Amino acid sequence: QSALTQPASVSGSPGQSITISCTGTSSDVGSYNLVSWYQQHPGKAPKLMIYEVSKRPSGVSNRFSGSKSGNTASLTISGLQAEDEADYYCCSYAGSSTSPVFGGGTKLTVL
Amino acid sequence: EVQLVESGGGLVQPGGSLRLSCAASGFTFSSYWMHWVRQAPGKGLVWVSRINSDGSSTSYADSVKGRFTISRDNAKNTLYLQMNSLRAEDTAVYYCARASIRGPYFDYWGQGTLVTVSS
Prior knowledge:
The complex is a heterodimer of chains A (111) and B (119). By secondary structure, chain A is mainly β. Chain A has strands at 9-12, 18-23, 36-40, 47-50, 64-69, 72-77, 86-92, 101-102, 106-110. Chain B has strands spanning 3-7, 10-12, 18-25, 34-39, 45-51, 58-60, 68-73, 78-83, 92-99, 106-109, 113-117. Chain B is globular.
């Protein structure tokens, strides 16, 4: 199972919205609503931000939203804040019997 | 409060062995599947291994299959990763992560422990 494809970097100004894409295949992202997104600040552990494509865990700001179209999932952050500057990783499964695969990660810079 | 605390990392020579531990607290450890995920310096997250709630089923990434062994002691609320025949490319921060009881995603992560394989 190959890694999911994410852009290496994205940037935006405070208050703007950005979207990070995560492209898989019809065998993983395209077939199952099992995409999750993680935020990782430097030197810190990853934190779950979105699960099952578009669901937000308790405590995660509603500025974070997820969606999927075909083989590509997306994470949108609206009203960008300085604290959102971090690396973001998507993750998907290709069915319940397979192993999870991560995207390569996207570095978000808040200008 | 859910807590996952890894330990056991350090410097080891190529071909050597190391055992990582992950002490869990704040939840019913024996009810959850657990995973190890690693991150090489400056690189992305890579899934390593997982174990089901009672330890009867395990799975490994191809890159570690036959060299690493995941296990757990539910009486001690502890997850383990035995790493043998270590290679330079195994150098990474190793995180233990809890799989949500509701689905295949990681809802809690430990702070990680650094493993450096070098002569």
